[in-house]
Write a structure and sequence with these properties.
The complex is a heterodimer of chains A (about 200) and B (about 325). Chain A is mainly α and about 200 residues long. The longest helix of chain B has 21 residues. With about 325 residues, chain B is an alpha/beta fold. The chains are: A mainly alpha (about 200), B alpha/beta (about 325). Chains A and B meet through helix 5, helix 6, helix 8, helix 9 and helix 10 of A and helix 1, helix 3, helix 5, helix 8 and helix 9 of B. Bound molecules: iron/sulfur cluster (2 copies). The site of one iron/sulfur cluster has 15 residues of chain A, from helix 2 and helix 3.
Amino acid sequence: MRTESNHPTTLVPPLHGEGRGPHAVDPLDEVRDLVRACMQCGTCTASCPNAASMDLTPRQMWRSLLFGFTDEVLRSKTFWMCSACYTCTLRCPRGLQLTRAMAALKRLAAQHGPGAARRKGIFYQAFIDNVHKYGRVQEMDLMFHYFMAMRDPLLPLRFTPVGMKLLAKGKLHAPDGRHKGVLDDLFTRVRELEGNP
Amino acid sequence: MSYAYYPGCSLTESAQEYDVSTRLVFDRLCLGLNEIDGWTCCGAGAVDAVSGLLALALPARNLGLAAKQFPGKDVLAPCSACYLNHLKVVEQTRHDRKLAHRVNQAIAGEDLALDPGVRVRHLLDVLVTDVGEERIGQAVLMPLEGLVVAPYYGCQALRPYPVFDDPERPQSMHRILQALGATVLDWDKAATCCGASLMATDQDTALRAVAGILSAAGEAHCVATVCPLCQMNLEAYQRQALRVNEAARAVAVVYLPQLMGLAMGMGPEDVLLSKNLAVTDRLSEALDRNHAQANIVSFRSDNHNRRVSPCSRTSSSR
Ligand code: SF4
Ligand code: SF4
């Protein structure tokens, strides 16, 4: 087993509960392709405003990906801490689309990752559902569904002061149903297109 | 000159004052805004994390509508997140015909298609490139003298596509503020992230980001923004953020076109200053002082009549 570190790509661990072998298609391959040219210079980490809240720094994230540590990557909270500020993308000397890679990791972790990762994807899914249903984001309805889906009784309390302020300023209103269903066709088509790339 | 206008979801809800003040200022500058009929959400910052194609198809639908309703017109999106989403479709499909085809297939149900030549514009871009400081300065009736403003660009107006400004040392808003007569705060947080949607998913991290920005705004009378998400994080969560960082103190946060409107002689009620969540006494007093002074000046020199109406359409009515 001493040679493990020399052959990292043969060590892709099985995905959660799916028991995939090392030869199965790894769901992270599409992200790997985005960062293959990384030279580990660390500019992305130095530029990231949220690096302090991450478990793996962005640079370590790309290395783990390229070494094939799929489980470690999917369990990480790094990409959930990405606020899409695009500083790393702008500054990477290799011109890599790093913010896009972080977003793809959120999507893949919500699909293939452990339960905790799926839970983190809830806000994003609630957002999409809201857009699909109403055509335009309805902030009050969005937060309501987000709280319900998170099943955390304390979470709404953190947002209550802000909700009250918005309400007082006449900035929250009941959902506007005028654009309901407008996006049905687009959503159906996207789903079909993504089913056969 | 006129633009196809995409207000986006926030500007119809929590950021009404941004929409209203933008329309007023554009009218004063004789620029037309044609709202895209039937527009829908562009996906904001969240869709990328669920579906890559959807993140492109949503803004593509709006661009398809714009191409149909206002062919050849540039598309203006005041919200930086909306701006980036629409710009991204154009940039990513420009040299990728396969992707362009997929995106067009997604919006074909309504008989819409992308116009590969469309230009997506940010509010700052239109203001500095198409209008210019000189014309903005000419429309100023009540210079914001003595007002110290911290220009806050946020992220997505400048990154990853540096279309109209230097993303490392942006200057466009500085120039506009100077044209309004304001003193521009030189600070290092002008293009630092406000935490964006981490405010919903990891509030502590986002609050630290906001606290850092607020504490750097120091002596400014207000922070000027060009994005409803930045605005929301900086003002609505300000009280919570101030508890995180003791060095930070309360500071007003307003949209750039609100300041422009005030400098152009509009009243606080016109630009809906009452809708802002963080207007400090310090800002209100400074604005009052300014107002009083400007009135005296314009009364003395008949400045008012001479300088109003930079465009022929309104000049006849004055
Ligand atoms: S900045 Fe680019 S090349 Fe450097 S470590 Fe980050 S991803 Fe790799
Ligand atoms: S885009 Fe994400 S990973 Fe990159 S610097 Fe910004 S927060 Fe960090």
